Every structure is written in structure tokens, then in C-alpha cells.
UniProtKB/TrEMBL annotation:
Name by which UniProt lists this protein: Uncharacterized protein
Lineage, uppermost ranks: Eukaryota, Viridiplantae, Streptophyta, Embryophyta, Tracheophyta
Domain of life: Eukaryota
Amino acid sequence: MAMFGCPEILAAILCLVFLFQLLWNRSKRDPLLTDWPILGMLPPLVLNLWQVHEFVTQVLKKKGGTGEFRGPWFTKLNYLVTLDPMNVHHMMSKNFGNYVKGPEFREIFEAFGDGIFTADSEQWKHNRAMLHSVFKSRSFEMFLERLIQKKVRSNLIPVVNHMQKQGTVVDLQDVFNRQTLPTSLWKLQKWIQIGEEKKMTRACKIFDQFLHECIASKRKELNGKYGKNEMEEHHLDLLTVLIKGRDTITSGLTWFFWLVVTHPLVERKILQEIEENFAAKEGDSMILGMEEVKNLIYLHCAICESLRLFPPIPFERKQAIEHDMLPSGHHVYPNENILISLYAMGRSEEIWGKDCLEFKPERWISKKGGIVHVPSYKFISFNAGPRTCLGKDLSFVQMKIVASAILWNYSIQVVEDHPISPSLSIVLLMKYGLKVRITKRGI
Ligand code: HEM
């Protein structure tokens, strides 16, 4: 009887793996990378983790904008990845009801609580309606305007001024971040009641009281729709939203400052615009208000441009409920996960043209001197459709107040050879911070 030796068995196994691999590949829709047995597409991704956003951008570009990523066998790490604005429009607006955050997202982002960031369907609608009414209230806007101005005047400018006098190297990202204590530390300190946190608790009580009044003023119009406990939940949701919003502002400001100070012509145009509008204003502080910053069109465009190239939230994840077909022709299966690369969309030639990698605020200025409207499914940094960021207007106001105050008073030079690269995190920060030297302008 003929017996099989080791080499034959090995060859048979290899043939089986090869055959399996062929069949496996055939079942896929536009694989983004080589799909290895067992490990799937993980190896090339892991090798490029240090530059993951650039890598995803290049891969999507090569594959025409949409394709499938398959993780290791028997894991749930499978995603349809896209940068196609028509797909985004479809998922975020046209067939919005079919694309949710999903239970897995809630599990991963448990720390966000079950507020607006993780909720779906009726729960989300409920939270959104409540927060929307608060965000659009004039008294809330005015409160935040005063809060931002006070922070810039009493915290940010004195800190920057001190560092300028010391003449040492400063991490600007850290400076922006320190204006906003990390949530966990804040919560921990609150719980154990130590140090500055005692003061913090008192401050929070006052802030809470204000928020309560804000919400109470809305109670009348919402009366009958919500019960008392629900009101308290919304109150907490608002605090979570404000805390989460701060991380994105830190990211937005850090990339904005890096781009502006490394593009002297843009910096000069921003200063010129401030001078034309406010030179006669108020001594040297230049802490503007909400209405005043509306006049700073070029600054607005420079902020849009930096948020396009470095969106503070670089990925958006969705989960399909039912079968669907995307405009790109890709079939979507029930429960399938979809990943939208906001970073890659900001660098797409199809959306922004051949000069998409250049920092050019001018692309946002219309022929009449206004701001070009780009639909949110193309300029996706604040998300698109019914789930568009609720803090978008507030973010522009805050970034404009901070940017005008710092740029007007100080000149910033990035430390030579300081490496600039994005971190691997939910919010797109700079991995090594933004190391700069600061001097008083005009000296
Ligand atoms: C430059 C600053 C900001 C950027 C780029 C930004 C971007 C985004 C993005 C991409 C989302 C969608 C996230 C997701 O679906 O997982 C989002 C949602 C949201 N943002 Fe912002 N955000 C910024 C600042 C803020 C601020 C300051 C606030 C509030 C004070 C805020 C409040 C919200 C809320 C409430 C949502 C949830 C909207 C919903 O699901 O209906 N954001 N933001």
C-alpha cells in the first residue's frame, strides 16, 4: 500500500491553503490589501500603524476610493472603507436610518456614557433635540462667549506671556490641552476631593447651576415631552458634550497654528485682516467677541483649510442595519461595519483638486469675497447630515478668538527639526506635541 510522506502532506496542505485563499479572495469586494491566510489584511496594516492615516489615504486612492478590509479569521475586524463623498452622502443623509453607531460602538466607547455620542434612533433623537435647543439658545451662546473670553484673558494669554519671557521651548499643544483638564483626572479628583479640585467642585456647582437655569428656561416649551429624570440625564449629557468638545478644539488649534506659522504669507494675511478690522480697538490684547470674529473671513477660511487637512476626528464608523447598495456600486450586508476616513477625504483630488495637499485658505474664498459653501459630505470634518456636529459654530468662534489673540500679540517659531506627525488616537493630536519658541510681536 502506497504511503504518503511528509513532503506530500505539506504540499497538500499548501495546495488547500492556496485554494482556500483563491475562493476567499473571490468572495470579496475590492480587497484593499493582500489577504493572508489566518491573519487577513492585518500584517500590512500593523507595519504601517505608525503612519496609519497616510497609509489608508494612499491605499484608498489606489483602489478608487472604496474597498474591503478583512481582519484575522474569526474576528469581527472587517470593514468596508470609503472616502467617496457620494457614499458618505448616501449613508449620512439619504439612507440615514439604515446606518447607525451600533451596539459594538457603544461597547468600545463605554466611557462616553450613553449620551448623544453613542446613542441611536429614538434615544439619539431625544438627546439631539434637547441639546439642540440649549445650543441654539442666545443665553447659552452668550455664556460661552464670556467663558471663552475670560479663559483667554485670564489663563491663556498670561501663560503664553510667561513662557515668552522665560524664552524656553514650549509645547503649544500642551498649553492648549492644559486649559482643559483631562476628563478622567477631573472626575477622579472630584471623587476624592483633593487639591485644586475643591475649587473645581465649587466652580462646577456654579456652572451646573447655570446649566440648570438654561435647561429650566427650556422646560416650559418642552413641558409634557420629558420627565424630571430625563431632564437630569440631558443635563449630564450636556456636560459630557462640553468636555468631549474640548479635545477636538485642542487638536484643531494645534494643527492650525503649525500650518499658519509655517506659511508666513497666510500669517501675514490673517494679521492684515485683524488690523483692517480692529487695529483701533483696545490697546494690545485683541480679545474679540462672537460678533466681531464674524468679520474675520480669511481667518475663517484658514481654519476650514486646517480642519480639512487635519480633521480632529479622523475616522467615522457606521454599522448597516439592512442590505443596501452604495452609489459606488458596493453591496452592504446587514450588520456590516463601514469606516469613513475623514483624513483621506480631506486629501482627495476628486473633491479638492490637484492641489489638495497644499494649505491654501484662498480655496475657501468666493469671487465676491465671502466663504465658499462646501457641502458637509465633502467637507466632512464636522460630520455630515442629521448628525452634524452641534458645536460647529461654537468651535469656529472659540478658535477664532484664541487665534486672533495669540497671533496678534505673539510671534511663534516651530523648533527646528521638531518631528511633526499625527498620533494614533481617536482625536488627531500631534504625537510629539508642537514645540515652539514664542516672542512678543514687534520686538
Ligand atoms: C474643531 C472642533 C470640532 C470638530 C472638528 C468636531 C467634529 C465632530 C464630529 C466629526 C462629530 C461626529 C462624531 C461621531 O459621530 O462619532 C461630532 C459630533 C458632535 N459634536 Fe463636535 N466637533 C468639534 C467641537 C465640538 C464642540 C466644541 C462641541 C460642543 C461644545 C461639539 C459637540 C458635538 C456633539 C453634541 C456631537 C454629536 C452630534 C450627534 O451625534 O447628533 N463638538 N463633532
